[in-house]
Design a protein that fits this description.
The chain is of the alpha/beta class. It is built from eleven helices and 14 strands.
Length: about 325
């Protein structure tokens, strides 16, 4: 059923002419006439008799008018209700997130979300497995690392930098290295799934592989993080998870001209068209809460092969991705 044609039919009857209905609905008169003719053809009956001066309903038209008014009322109420839903999100929002992102980033977002949108029910799954929004029935999937190779919309939240950090306690005892070579005389903490004996670091102009003295090697973020905070060594940690400690001066960037790149943080969802209001509200909060104040004022721009592949084959919600951070660490 063409709901616009139904509205046109009702308006013609109310105002008594095609011309008046076209003016009220701000439609060309030809469109109004065509819509009524198409409606009559689909119903297989003539709804009204009309001449240049007169218009009257047929018996079929009188009967259809009752249905049309009911249809128009239902559609009007539905539009009103869904407009309210759009402005006041409600329903269920299902999110999947890596545990670390959930603990150190998502909790802040959700705390604000719950207070702002009390009618939305949240279902949050912490998992290290990458979930597909459509297959696994999630509204939003957060993912940290390289972009997945399946067809979804990916909203880039922030780039996953790693930088060298040490605590003031460690610096007070052991000093600050002034070059990569000096790291060999310092205690270091490796955070790596494979417990590798190396760090791959790059500056704006070169890449270096170094093999420092690792006092601790672990695949657990919290062990590396706490060990670094407690002054037990220098660690290469995710920038997006260390901003608060840098600003509170519990962590100090070491050799900030060197960094590691491990991909990005993305919000994956099935489609950008007609997003449900709980999803749109959540994505807006991700932008609001992402930490832009994480590194020194140097600007880095590096190509990432996974991003190049995604731009070529998939649909990215932002047309361009550059690793670009600028902050004031004194704040």
């Amino acid at each position: 059923m063409d709901f616009q044609a139904v509205e046109i039919f009702i308006t013609i009857i109310e105002l008594g002419s095609f011309t008046a209905a076209a003016q009220k609905l701000r439609l060309p008169k030809q469109t109004v006439s065509r819509k009524i003719t198409t409606l009559e053809n689909k119903l297989g009956v003539r709804l009204m008799e009309r001449s240049t001066r007169h218009l009257r309903l047929t018996s079929s038209g009188e009967r259809f008018l009752q249905y049309a008014q009911d249809i128009h009322k239902v559609v009007r109420n539905a539009k009103k209700e869904f407009t309210h839903f759009k402005e006041n999100p409600q329903g269920i929002l299902r999110i999947a997130t890596p545990p670390l992102v959930g603990d150190l980033f998502l909790r802040k977002v959700l705390s604000h979300y719950i207070e702002t949108f009390p009618k939305v029910q949240l279902e949050i799954l912490y998992t290290d497995q990458l979930k597909e929004p459509i297959r696994d029935q999630f509204d939003v999937v957060l993912w940290s690392g390289n972009l997945p190779q399946f067809n979804v919309i990916a909203k880039h939240i922030t780039s996953s930098w790693t930088m060298l950090y040490a605590s003031p306690l460690y610096i007070e005892k052991h000093g600050v290295p002034t070059s990569l070579e000096e790291l060999s005389s310092h205690s270091c903490i490796q955070l790596n799934a494979q417990l590798e004996q190396q760090w791959i670091l790059q500056s704006d102009s070169e890449q270096r592989t170094i093999r420092p003295n690792f006092r601790i090697k672990t695949n657990n973020f919290w062990l590396a993080y706490e060990s670094c905070l407690n002054g037990q060594g220098i660690s290469l940690l995710p920038v997006m998870l260390c901003g608060d400690k840098v600003r509170s001066k519990h962590l100090v960037p070491i050799l900030p001209e060197w960094f590691g790149v491990t991909g990005g943080l993305y919000a994956l969802f099935p489609s950008r068209k007609l997003l449900a209001s709980p999803v749109r509200a959540f994505l807006n909060l991700l932008d609001k809460f992402k930490d832009k104040n994480l590194t020194k004022a140097e600007t880095y721009r590096k190509a990432d092969a996974s991003i190049a592949h995604y731009l070529e084959h998939m649909h990215l919600s932002l047309p361009e991705i550059n690793y670009h951070f600028s902050i004031d660490v004194e704040k």
